[in-house]
Amino acid sequence: MSITRCNICLRLVKVNVNALRNYHSENVFGFKKKPKKVYQVPDEVQAARCNESNFYRLVTAYRQHGHKCSSIDPVQFSLNSR
Which domain of life is it from (predicted)? Predict the structure, then answer.
């Protein structure tokens, strides 16, 4: 039975993931749980979101997908200058 390279890689990945999980568990000395963040949204904001739901969808779409259509290069990695 021969072991392919992919099987070896998968086994190594599983070993590394398990090692990381055990290191950050409660049974390790010095482990401290992160406090849970609870966000309270005011009633006025929730009412505004209900009234302007299409606007919030548009803003979310620009935030998530606007960079795909733009030609802005704020860091100027490209060598072509305009």
Answer: Eukaryota
pLDDT tens per residue across span 7-31? 555 555 555 455 555 566 677 777 7
Tokens of 4: 């392919």
CA 52, 53, 58, 62 torsion: positive or negative?
A: positive
* Domain extents in the chain: 5-67
What is the chain's Cα-based Rg? 24
> pTM of the full predicted structure?
0.34
Rounded to whole angstroms, the Cα distance separating 58 from 43 reads 22
Angle between helices 43-51 and 53-69 (to 10 degrees): 70
Phi, psi of 43, deg, nearest 5? -65, -35
Report CA 64 to chain centroid distance, whole Å: 12
**In whole angstroms, what separates CA 1 from the centre of its chain?**
40
